Amino acid sequence: MRETDVLVVGAGAAGIAAARALGQAGLRCQVLEARARPGGRAATDTATLGAPFDLGATWLHAAGRNPLRPLAEALGMAPFDHGSARESVCFDAGRRVGPEDMAAYDATWEGFHARLAALTPQPGESAAALAARAGFGPGRWDATVMHWEGPVICATPLAGMDARDYLDTLLERPDLLLPEGAGTLLARLAQGLPIACGAVVERLDWSGPRVVAEGPFGRLEAAAAIVTVPTAVLAAGAIRFTPELPPDTAQAIHDLPLGLLTKIGLRAAGADRLDLPPFAGIERRVEREEEAALTAIAWPFGHDHLMGFVGGPAAWELAGAGPEATVDFALAELAKNFGARAAAALRRDGALVSDWARDPFSRGAYSHARPGRATARGILAAPLAGGRLCFAGEACHSSLAATLGGAWETGEAAAAHAIRSLRDKEPQPLTPALAWRYAAPATDAPPLTGTTDER
Ligand SMILES: Cc1cc2nc3c(=O)[nH]c(=O)nc-3n(C[C@H](O)[C@H](O)[C@H](O)COP(=O)(O)OP(=O)(O)OC[C@H]3O[C@@H](n4cnc5c(N)ncnc54)[C@H](O)[C@@H]3O)c2cc1C
């Protein structure tokens, strides 16, 4: 196809949602996807571990408002409330933490969001500075909770992210797991859509009345374009825009770098299940937020593998060292908790390690706003040229950022802008609900440096 109504760059959650919305509105669209598969940062491996393993997105967070929950259920999938089975097993210097100390850990956790949310972030304040103002730092469990909140959950240390954005994008429970995998859900939602895989967009010309995409696939022309490519890929200059993007938009892209979360699947070697029930969380106490540590979930759905996570600076370092070093790291971490039993219980061969850092079509895991840049998400989501060029994707969502559900909603919002731009030639004013998100441009913008968190 050389001509269509709307072209969509990228077939992740945002691109799939946009394509579905455009199709439902009766418009022609073409999705250009660089990889050989749709789904983007949601991909389920079903071959390596003998059971589904999500290399990227795993949970449907904030399920009460997650648009993917009803879609999964409509496809006959049965999302499972992880909270109903979650039991944490925490170790400190090789010993399992006892009930009293565990209660102190839980209390620190429970107070963290509430105590930070009770404060008003100062302009430019980082989440780490806000946590310090809330009194976190010296307590016995403070670094462990901050390690979870920063490098593991947000994929970057609290010092690197804006306090306002951190509070705005907190995710409430329930967190649902899909037995078939979140990547499987996305693959099923993509079925039947006009997606061209292996189509890398290198140039996007939006100078004329038509938008033109070019790459090794050739040339595709449309009345409007929706770009859902991760911010780190855009910041690296993978797509050349003609004319260049407005300075506010270009700045917003650089203000929303991707942190890194790496997932590791380790298979049981025999019958030993380390005395852990399915879904047990394996953690250890850390002394510093940025300490390299592994967290893991044991035997999800009773399968014979552990699902491990390492995030933030340690994940970038391991990505550079390679998958074998990452598996060694994971086994060494588990040995800290279980001693020699870990090496006997888990196989070193046949492990699965995600590689979102070196993947040229992601260059990281998911976005956070740099300190002082909380408005960047709204700026990036603001339609350009009366809706003829729109950005969408997880980085554009004001509250569900870094999630599948957030990406999905921004895809639908961008499709609505594109539809309006096609139907009304005059640009429409923003609805009040959207206007507040797009209101405040970044004023003290730093120079365009650094494309990701990568050190
Ligand atoms: C390890 C990890 C764990 C996560 N855990 C969760 C979780 O539990 N729950 C959750 O909700 N979210 C989670 N996320 C985040 C979630 O995966 C993302 O928020 C979501 O998938 C982003 O969707 P998107 O459409 O914005 O971007 P993407 O999924 O990245 O889609 C963008 C698409 O653009 C394509 N592309 C890139 N460059 C080009 C180009 N030049 N031309 C054409 N196509 C291009 C890419 O190949 C990709 O398919 C996790 C992510 C990772 C990496």
List keywords for this structure.
7-stranded mixed sheet; Tryptophan 2-monooxygenase; globular; auxin biosynthesis; 455 residues; FAD/NAD-bd_sf; alpha/beta; Polyamine Oxidase, Chain A, domain 2; binds flavin-adenine dinucleotide; EC 1.13.12.3
Structural summary, described in words:
By secondary structure, the protein is an alpha/beta fold. The chain folds into two domains: 3-42 and 181-257 and 368-438, 3-Layer(bba) Sandwich (FAD/NAD(P)-binding domain); 81-126 and 133-155 and 261-353, Polyamine Oxidase, Chain A, domain 2. It is 33% helix and 18% strand. The protein is built from 15 helices and 20 strands. The protein has helices at residues 13-24, 68-74, 99-117, 127-133, 142-154, 163-168, 182-190, 231-235, 247-254, 313-321, 323-338, 340-345, 376-381, 404-423, 432-438, and strands spanning 3-9, 29-33, 44-45, 53-54, 59-60, 80-81, 87-92, 95-96, 176-177, 195-197, 203-205, 211-215, 218-227, 240-242, 261-267, 280-284, 295-298, 305-311, 352-353, 389-391. The strands form four sheets. Strands 1, 2, 10, 11, 12, 13, 14 and 20 form an eight-stranded mixed beta sheet that branches. Strands 8-7-16-17-18-15-19 form a seven-stranded mixed beta sheet. β11 (203-205) and β12 (211-215) form a beta hairpin. α1 (13-24) runs parallel beside α14. The relative contact order is 0.19. Residues 9-15, 32-35, 40-42, 56-59, 61, 200-201, 228-230, 233, 238-239, 261, 263, 354, 356, 361-362, 365-366, 393-394, 402-405, 407 line the site of flavin-adenine dinucleotide (FAD).
